[in-house]
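INPUT
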Amino acid sequence: MNKKTFKGLDQFENVKNWFDTIIDSSFDGLWICDKDGNIIRINKAAETMNELKSIEVVGRNMRELVREGFFDKSITLEAIKKKTSVTMLQHTRTGKKILVTSNPIFNEEGEITFVVSNDRDITELDHLRSQLHETQDLMKRYSAKLSELEIKSEDPHSFVYHSKEMRQIYEMAVRVAKVDSTVLLLGESGVGKSILAHLIHQQSERVKGPFIRVDCVGIPDSLIESELFGYVKGAFTGARPEGKAGLFELANKGTLFLDEIGEIPLNIQSKLLRFLEKHEVNRVGGTGVKEIDVRIIAATNMNIEEMVSTKRFRADLYYRLNVVPIVIPPLSERRDDILSLLFYYLQKFNQKYQKEKTFSPAVIDLLCDFNFPGNVRELSNLIERMVVTTEKSYMELSDLPQGIINRIHQSDQNNYGIYENLSLKEASEKFELIMIGRTIKNYGSQKKASKILRVDQATISRKLNKRQSQCKMQ
Ligand SMILES: Nc1ncnc2c1ncn2[C@@H]1O[C@H](COP(=O)(O)OP(=O)(O)OP(=O)(O)O)[C@@H](O)[C@H]1O
Ligand SMILES: [Mg+2]
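OUTPUT
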């Protein structure tokens, strides 16, 4: 042992105490050895980390400890041998992994006087890292499963239509699905753009690949570029150290659905255009490019042509996206779909909530004439609400939410649009049904309504039955 140095320290008892307090307060384990690897001092953290007591090791040589299996190697001895600072991984007898840095201290003649080693227990870190990897793998598996389930749940039969307009759209979607052309879906909110995008993916050869929906409204402007294109490690503060793949990369071999494309900021529009031209991504902060094999479907409920003319949307990007435009008309312009959708959603929600509800003909009639400004989304929400909230199985006009009734009355009084293009006979029948429906609702029964309208109850019932069987046939 180096007596000279100890003598020096003994003269300063208070300094020694002060020094002890400091090294014992360190979270890192500390070992102080002399030039031959004899242990002079270890701190409390080193005791805990190595699961030993100071008196077991102080005064002994590192070689003995290695021989006795305290640890697999001594980094102190390595540092003495190499005469330089050494960092190595050490395994202890209790199975811990310790990252040790041994630092030799030299005197004025350039000889080693001490070696100070610090220990860092990375067992927990290692454990956490493998847990993180496991969780990341699990997440990848779950998200793949989720998109698979999402796609399966939207089977082609759930795309309901009856009108000529929608049949043409459906056929066009199936045809275009077979090739890789870019599709632009246009139409009001709730008309079925997203469900049609799914359908195109399902009907395409990419069905086994991912279907990634990019919600261009949902991503904050500051993150949109890194979300879409990904970033390399250390690209910006707060970035994941290992970098991150963007949504475009995740869609490789599948379909990329750019929903609400009208909302995308102008600076990202030019990057998007570059991607559409080259099908390559360049992660934020990166230099290399990666080729991506995706089919693009975009959708918007905005008037994109007007946005182009007012320079809020790049014309070149619009032309790139507008290879195959599909415009889905609002439900009010394809009324023939309403009845099929009513029955589809009635059955769906009956099944979901284990009910056996039916609509009265008057309800069907009124809903078939309703404008549904929220389109199919509004229709489906309305039926779900009625199935869930109506107590009796037979849902009548009085079970319609008041908001809907008010809007129907308003539109009945304000316009005659519902009779447009009908023959006088058809218009009279329709008017009769509205009268009958409203009177039954107001007076509570067919019997009372027949009195008010001064006809037989049988006539009312026959007219309603006729309408119901027409509905069933459609
Ligand atoms: N033809 C259809 N058959 C069955 N369900 C439909 C049909 N069209 C739309 N829907 C349903 O209506 C709801 C709204 O449709 P979707 O989300 O596709 O509309 P959207 O046009 O994308 O609306 P937004 O512009 O608000 O995103 C969804 O629940 C969808 O499943
Ligand atoms: Mg949508």
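end of record. The pocket of adenosine-5'-triphosphate (ligand 1) is lined by residues 158-161, 187, 189-195, 301, 376-377, 380 (CB under 6 Å).
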